[in-house]
Amino acid sequence: MAEGVVVTGMGIVSSIGFNVDETLHSLMIGKTGIGKISILETIHRDEFVLGEIKLTHQQLMEKLGVNLNLPWTRTALLGVWAARQAYQSAGLSKNSGKRIGLVSASTVGGMDRSELYYKDFLTDAIHKNHIDTHHAGNSTEMIADDLNIHDYLTTISTACSSSLNSIMFGARLLRHNLLDAVIVGGTDALSRFTLNGFNTLMILDHEHCRPFDATRRGLNLGEGAGYLVLERTSDALAGKKQVIAQVAGYANANDAFHQTASSDNGEGPFLAMQRAVAKAGITPQDIDYINVHGTGTDNNDLTEGVAMKRLFGDKVPPFSSTKAFTGHTLGATGVIESIISILSMNNDKVFPNINFKEVIEEINLVPVSQLTNLHINHVLTNSFGFGGNDSSVVFSKVPSNISGL
Amino acid sequence: MMLAPTYIDGSGAVVPQPTVNQDRFLEEILEYNERFLQVVSPVYKDYIDVKLLRRMSKIVKMSIVSARVAMQQAGVDQVDAIMTGTGMGCQIDTEKFLNAMIENGENLLTPTSFIHSTHNTMGGQIALMLGNKNHNLTYVHRTFSFESALLDAMMMIAEKEAQKVLVGGIDEITDESWLIKTQIDYYKKHACKNSEVYNNLQPGALSGEGSAFFVLSADRSEKTYAQLKGVSTLYKPRSNKELEDFIKRFLVTNEFGLSDIDLVIMGNNGDPVFDRVYEDLANGLLKTIPTGRFKHLCGEYDTASSFALWIASGILRHQHVPSTISQHPFKGRTPKNILIYNHFRNINHSLILVSTPDVS
Asked: Which of A43, A157, A252 sits opposite B119 (nearest CB)?
């Protein structure tokens, strides 16, 4: 583990929980966060279900106790919520002398406010303090300011694979000794922009999504944020830190097939998984569980299944999609599912692919659909997105003699 | 810490000045008297299949042309990674979808503009064009976007995960995005002569757009004409001293002294308030070093530092400082080491250091 990078803190908020413990509880009891729309103002309220966090903008600001005079977007508020938890759980502090950075991902940025105020921006600009909250880096700066982070920050946007790429870039910054600790992850709030966008693509299911099921009709959108604190293994051990997991391998590949659809042979997903496993220095057979991207769209699940069969042959490891719990949280999905994967590994449990009933004939792969005990040393998680961007990360269990837990 | 040697083998830019297929290197300035500057359109069909061209937005077209020019210059037809930086991404498509959604009350929408509204569209389209299945990332943090892409490329090269990396910075301007940012004095409200922008007293910057791509290489070859020494960013310095310390530390880290720097290219953009940060440095810490400016050529945009790198590496290639970038005829020694310093409203500061290739 000499040159390695480990996870020393985690924070999460999504429709299934306001923190790591609540998230774990929901996963254990099979409680989905997807339901009728009650927060997002949209004409599609009765048409679709979403994984909403059931607090209004105002309630979120009050719960977090943030400065109400600042122009907060929902994306930034969710990000602050999860990043504070990660920061605290890793025991970071501003006077530690450590160089602390933040690498965050977002796809919609401040769109949740822009779509409300856009016409006003163009005319008399009553809401002009929100003009500069539109860009994708705004939430990153709001989080950095909340946590007093100055040493490095940047923002990544590769559609639905965004926050797995934050993990990769953050790990690289540590390996090059440019930082001592880095908070990596992403945040995305629900917006009418994305709901309507995915609706025009006709890939939203009106019912609860059914990943890897033959009758799947599309995805359910969700919202949330998640962050991991990464540190070099040697620093974490020297500092007697709790070590939650090892970031063992990662890879990013491009499908180079189509702007939104994925290729029939799953080339991009295949390459991302293959390279991530190779980078971890293990073989595909060493992967004990895969938290798949599994959006519930016709195209994704088929392609991902094809890619898994290419890599694992007839020995595809136990796998499940947890998107029927959280919904597809876009730029946050990679890190949210990384946290779920780590919870799986550290609790030796596979969380179920709920709503699965009927196997997809073309691939004949059956996801784990009940909560299952399984000894997990290595977990693989996938995120794929528009633009052909495909990413995979492997997390490995920390040997018990050094976990510090 | 220093990263492994990273060489520049090719570059291409599409900006509001003629830069594509030019024998001359910024010898004359294209004068404008406009609210904002727009790119000089290259002959797109020379670079992009006409059938594809019709469906492409401006930002994708300018990315592809500058990427192709950079790759042609470097003599490569594939790369090991594609890294793009864009502050605002695909503004035309985002506005199209947003306006349609608001005006039609979430009805009668079509997917085309939504599909192309994601920030990684340019990186994805370049990968598609090249059939490139390698590492592909898009950074979207205002004036840190291009710098993050450069840093990631340098780290990948240092880790030997890539030999050749295509890196670019791209942003597009639209009427609406310009208008919105005039409301908060980020951009000038009225037309302004670009040649006189630094003396213009209207609040805000003269806005613009552009794209610049580079082929970075782990190995020096006969194509190599510059060496990327380092890149660094600073967020919200709490004092002028912190900014000066940042610059000094950056040079020390890269084993340079101030006296080694032959030229500093500064990001002045005509904003009377925030240009003071540049002036203070030019009259203070950097006063012994000749300075150049470039945003009268391209206007202000989040990834304008990519055009500054295009200029700096061009100077090293041509062994000549064009008079269009310096206030006074350049009298210094022929530059070997050029520092680029840029900031956004004293929030996001960045440095890029580029040199003639080390003799190896």
From this structure: A157
